[in-house]
Design brief:
The chain is an alpha/beta fold and 249 residues long. It has 3 domains: 69 residues, Rossmann fold; 54 residues, no CATH class; 69 residues, 3-Layer(aba) Sandwich (Cobalt-precorrin-4 Transmethylase, domain 1), CATH 3.40.1010. The chain contains 9 helices and 10 strands. Strands 2-1-3-4 form a 4-stranded parallel beta sheet, with helices on both faces. Strands 7-10-8-9 form a 4-stranded parallel beta sheet, covered by helices on one side. The two termini are 39 Å apart.
């Protein structure tokens, strides 16, 4: 990894933008969307700059002042690069190539735009608003993480790529009582890479893993560390609340 992806809060903060033309106008629109105050090179309070024409002399002057600079189409001069963005506010997905190919980043963004539904932002806001109820239903942080992960998983109650996730409905059903579920993993080999995607996902979410004595440790290591593990000769007749996975060869 050649750089660290970050999301900068720019609302009300000055950002220098230099250069003219289409590239400068596009960067101006992007900065305004992020809430930044677009200023000129002489602003002494700005700590970030975009040099839209890639002018080397401008880059050098700004860097000498300790300003972090993005120089359009000049990756060797950049302190940071600007990713292609999929915007489902407040959900943001950034695709960067470290300046290697803006075209590739744009192509990937187009694919993701088609894949990711518009309601992702609403789902994020609903989960944020439900934090108090989530803590009430699952006071233990591990249980809460498990419940949210299961609900958001493919085919889950609030699958983000599903139809129209209903957070309130999910929490209402959860308030009615905790469900128990048994999932069976029948191993095809001792190699954990041979697990199906679904089997691996269910192991990672399991509250309790019951397993035959000959199940390899490498398979059991795919379960989360705080899951209860029970070595037994046959599938459980009774199971605890939550998700129990029975693993056998």
């Amino acid at each position: 990894m050649q750089s660290l992806p970050v999301f900068l809060a720019l609302t009300g903060r000055p950002v220098i933008l230099t250069g003219r033309g289409e590239a400068a106008e596009a960067k101006h629109r992007l900065l305004e969307r992020a809430g930044a105050i677009v200023v000129g090179e002489d602003d002494s309070d700005a700590r970030i700059a975009i040099v839209s024409d890639g002018d080397e002399a401008t880059v050098a002057r700004l860097k000498a002042r300790g300003v972090l600079v993005n120089a359009t189409d000049r990756p060797a001069l950049c302190d940071f690069t600007l990713p292609a963005i999929v915007d489902r506010d407040p959900v943001l997905i950034a695709i960067g190539t470290g300046g290697a190919s803006a075209g590739l980043a744009a192509a990937l963004r187009q694919r993701l735009e088609a894949l990711l539904p518009g309601h992702l932002g609403d789902l994020a806001r609903a989960l944020f608003a439900a934090r108090g109820e989530l803590r009430r239903l699952w006071p233990d942080a591990g249980q809460r993480r498990q419940a949210i992960g299961k609900a958001l998983a493919p085919g889950g109650v609030i699958d983000p790529l599903g139809g129209d996730p209903d957070v309130d409905g999910w929490l209402a059903d959860a308030s009615a009582g905790t469900e128990t579920e048994l999932y069976v993993v029948r191993l095809r080999s001792a190699d954990p890479d041979d697990l199906t995607l679904r089997d691996a996902r269910m192991l990672a979410m399991a509250d309790q893993v019951c397993h035959a004595p000959d199940v390899p440790a490498a398979i059991l290591d795919r379960a989360r560390a705080d899951a209860v593990r029970v070595n037994m000769d046959g599938p459980p007749d009774e199971r605890d609340e939550g998700l129990t996975v029975w693993v056998t060869i």
